[in-house]
Amino acid sequence: MKLLSYLLVYRRFLLIVLTPLLLLPLPLIIKTKEAECAYTLFVVAIFWLTEALPLAVSALIPAFMFPLFGIMGSKEVASAYFKDFHLLLIGVICLATSIEKWNFHKRVALRMVMLVGVNPAWLTLGFMVSCAFLSMWLSNTSAAAMVMPIVEAGAQQIIRAEAEADALEMPCSNGSINPALELDGRHTVQFLSLPTLTLQQTPHKINTTVNSKPNHAVYSYIDSKLSVFSGTSLNPTFVLDDEPFLYINWWRKSREDKYSGIFKVMCLCVAYSATIGGLTTITGTSTNLIFAEHFNTRYPGCQCINFGSWFILSIPITVVILLLSWVWLQWLFLGFDFKNMFKCGKKKTAREEASAQVIREEYKKLGPMSYPEIVTLVLFILMTLLWFTREPGFIPGWSSLFPKYKGYATDSTTALVIGLLFFIIPAKTFSRTSNGENTVFGYTPLITWKEFQSCMPWEIAILVGGGFALADGCEVSKLSEWVASKLAPLGSLPLWLVILISCLIVTSVTEVASNPATITIFLPILSPLAEAIHVNPLFILIPATLCTSFAFLLPVANPANAIVFSYGHLTVMDMVKAGLGINIIGVAVVMLAIMTWIVPIFDLYTYPSWA
């Protein structure tokens, strides 16, 4: 027993030591660069999954293992830890810092809650639709980083409103219990799960009171535990022991679980909707752009992939996955009560009225919009417009004004320009006194460097950098080519099975490798595979491209997941549990789409002349 307790105490240490040792035969026996890279990949993946080490610390493992194995030099590995994504993150965090500093996110969240209502399920759907729409035009990372502060504030307001409403109902909230628990009844009563209660027969009537006030929660609990036997006239009295009433503890725990579930659902809805929304447009995510570039380069005779055709094939997929994901998250963390969710036109309960009143009072406390809030809103809109108009796809964007430097400016360029303005624009304006004179304030920008540092998730930046380093290592060591070469025998299988296996493999690989790296690896393999089995390449490439974005399982699977995870409301297993369901939903919907409505759009059952 003592040994077992020691093992439990030191389980993380044992996992850290034993994982590399148990996997060590892989590079020692199979002395290839692919095996050495696979060894590093397995060690990091296990540490990420179990959180034996801090996630950022685990992400640094490739920085010393790749040079020791001779896979990549230290300078090459180091360059992978700071990419264009990090510059984009810096710019977006400047915006997020200003939003949070001046409470603009709280204003938006409260306003949205007032419009949609305090029902967490409907509010979650509203946030998912908003984030998915933004992600159609912006990068998934930008959409998640902008919406998450608003969602966080909205969840906090709902939790506060729920807590204040619960305080009115909470049994024995001051810790005292009246032992004279009396019922005006004609039935024999049994408590099925309260050993602290003793049953006595008495002809007296009794009242259930706590501090001279009727406790309806206790009444409802007693009613739920009644076992009724007709034909008896016993009047029972329940005498409580000195131990705390068991129901109170159970009740409190259930409320805490619900509050935790609300935070988890709302965090995950942002991460997943940002990824799902990016599927809708060619410019919505980098994997779509890589696919379009690869396809148009390999098959210049086909002009079928454009902004319009992609939108038509993907918008039904996005809508279906979004709705099913919403249902899944609700059921998984909060339960899905159709009766309460769809009670249109019915009168609000006392709890809902109390919660709504708290929200209205909080909104009134904010007062009118301040000057810093207005400036933050203007810069937010400007950043969004610049992102949207850089390369919209269907019309020339502002990047076309620099034809000599095509591809030089990215979303990070816009984010850094706007982010710099937050350090320049003053936070206060002149104000007039009663004499009509201007009062001069000391110059203070909208945000300071210390405020930015407090909001910048440096740990997440290292975490994502570790993912980039692993992706580069897999490519340099040719581990990715080895995995892809194993797909060659798929040509002898039925077409639907070939597509399904391709989708499942791509979905699995993209959980540990970056999405762009995964699609870059598999497109050159799947295109010849389609040609070899004499199938329209789009039949295999479209579902594989869509499934490359289904990185839902781990915080490091994509930057949107990492940003949401950094708020501290989720564990890795929460994300794995929820993401597994979303992955299954996504693959199922993509399979349904490629076998039904996408077929007539590209005439997929006909082998094209351009292939």
Main sheet makeup: 3 strands, antiparallel
**Rounded Rg:** 29 Å
Give the spatial strand order of the biggest sheet. Answer: 1-5-2
- Summing up helix and strand content along with how strands pair, one would put the structural category as mainly alpha
Structure overview:
There is one protein chain. It contains 28 helices and 7 strands. The chain starts with a helix and ends in a 9-residue tail after the last helix. The protein has a domain at 89-166 and 254-432 and 441-455. The protein is mainly alpha-helical and 611 residues long. Helices cover 64% and strands 3% of the residues. Helix 8 packs parallel to helix 19. Mean pLDDT is 75; it is low at 172-243. The strands form 3 sheets. A 3-stranded antiparallel beta sheet has the order 1-5-2, with no helix packed on it. 38% of the residues are buried. A hairpin with a 5-residue loop joins strand 6 (431-432) and strand 7 (438-439). It has helices at 2-9, 11-23, 25-29, 33-50, 55-59, 61-69, 74-80, 84-101, 104-116, 120-137, 140-169, 216-224, 246-278, 286-298, 307-333, 338-341, 350-366, 371-390, 411-422, 449-455, 458-476, 479-485, 495-509, 515-532, 537-548, 559-565, 572-595, 598-602, and strands at residues 181-182, 197-201, 209-210, 213-214, 236-240, 431-432, 438-439.
